[in-house]
Specification:
- The protein has 207 residues and is mostly helical.
- The chain has a single domain (20-207), classed as Iron/manganese superoxide dismutase, C-terminal domain (minor pseudopilin epsh fold).
- 46% of the residues lie in helices and 10% in strands.
- It has helices at 21-43, 53-58, 65-82, 94-104, 107-120, 171-174, 178-185, 191-201, and strands at residues 125-131, 137-143, 158-164.
- Strands 2-1-3 form a three-stranded antiparallel sheet.
- α1 packs antiparallel against α3 and α4 packs across α5 (107-120).
- The chain binds manganese (II) ion.
Length: 207
Amino acid sequence: MPFTLPKLKYAFNALEPYIDAKTMEIHHGKHHAAYTANLNKAIEGTDMEGKSIENILINLDKDNKPIRNNGGGFYNHSLFWEIMSPKGGGKPTGKLANAIDSAFGSFESFKEKFTAAAATQFGSGWAWLVVHEGGKIEVCSSANQDNPLMPGIGCGGTPILGLDVWEHAYYLNYQNRRPDYINAFFNVINWDEVSSRYAIGKEEVKE
Ligand code: MN
C-alpha cells in the first residue's frame, strides 16, 4: 500500500494537559487511520498511485471527493502530529521569527490572527500558517479536509503550521470551548519543526 499511517513521535498522553490522551488515541488511531485507508482505496488503479501526497493535492481535481477528503485528511494530520511536541510552546526564533514580525508586526499579532482564523472557521476545518515561494507568510483557514496546497483553496502556498478545528480534535476535553483548545495548542507548537518547514517551503516552486 502506498500510504501508511505515520507513527507518532510521542506517547498519546504526552501533550496533556493541553490535548488529552483519549483524543490523541482516537484521532490518530481511528480518524487518521481511516483517511489513510480510504486514500489508498481511492488511488488504487489510478495514475495517482506512486505519486507523493503533495503532488496529488497540488494537481487535485476538486470534484474528486474521495481524493479531496481523504488525501487532505492524510496530509493534514501527518503535518499536525509533526508540528506538535511535548517540548513545544514558546515562540519561534531566527528567520521564522523575522518573517512573523514582518508579516504581522509581532508574535502576539500573529497569535491573534491565527486564533481568529481557527475560531471563526464555521464548522469543521483547519487554520493554517503558510509560506509562499520567496518567504512571505500568511494565515488563513479552510473547510473540511481542504488545505492550501489544493488549487484555489485558502491562501495558497505551503502549510507550515496547521490546527485541526474539527470537533473530533477537541470535544472530549473541551466540548464546545473551541477558543480554550486553540489557546492550549500554543503550548505544544513545535516551533523548531515549523521553522524547518518554513526554510524548505520558501524555496519551493509549486507547479
Ligand atoms: Mn482531525
